[in-house]
Structure formats: structure tokens, C-alpha cells
Amino acid sequence: MAVTVSLVALFGLVLFFLLRSRSLSAGAAFTAVMFGFFLASTGAAGPINEMTAAIVHAIPSL
Predict the structure, then answer these.
(1) For residue range 43-61, what is the model confidence (pLDDT) as tens digits?
(2) CB distance 18 to 49 below 8 Å
(3) Which pTM does this prediction carry?
(4) Rounded CA gap, 13 and 5, in Å?
(5) Which residues 6+ apart lie within 8 Å of 34 measured at CB?
(6) Which helix (H) or strand (E) holds 1?
(7) Residue 59, helix vs strand vs coil
(8) What's the CA gap between 12 and 18, in Å, rounded?
(9) Which of 15, 32, 38, 45 shows the greatest Cβ crowding within 10 Å of its Cβ?
(10) Complete DSSP assignment for 7-52
(11) What is the distance between the alpha carbons of residues 47 and 59, in angstroms, rounded to a whole number?
């Protein structure tokens, strides 16, 4: 839960700055899509949350 909340805040902040600077690129589109999935908690959010949790747990072992 804590990872999801912080990812929503992170993606929201990044999206805010990308929209404010009027840069609409592939990175901005990806950020907007990820922010939408985490924020809305659709049916696709479960697998995305699991994938994100797996990545977060894998980072320390790199």
C-alpha cells in the first residue's frame, strides 16, 4: 500500500511538471497512463501493482 501511494504521488508530480512545461512526448504519455492506472485502480491495476511490487523488491538485489 505504501509503495502504491508513493508511486501515485511520484507519477502525479512528474505528470504535473511535464504538463506545465508543455512537453508532450512518449515519456509524458507513459507517465499519464501509469498515473491513471494507479489512481483509478481499475481491473488492470492489480497486475500492474504486482509487477511494480516485484520490481521494487528486485531493485535491492541489483
Answers:
(1) 766 787 788 889 888 988 8
(2) no
(3) 0.46
(4) 12
(5) 7, 11, 48
(6) none
(7) helix
(8) 10
(9) 38
(10) HHHHHHHHHHHHHHTT--SHHHHHHHHHHHHHHHT-TTHHHHHHHH
(11) 18
- As a whole number of angstroms, the longest Cα–Cα distance in the chain is 37
Residues listed for the chain = 62
49 and 4 in contact (C-beta within 8 Å)? yes
For residue 22 the three cell numbers come to 508543455
Neighbours of 17 (CB within 10 A): 12
Type of residue numbered 4: T
Written as nine digits, the cell of 47 is 497486475
* Residue 29 identity (one-letter amino acid): A
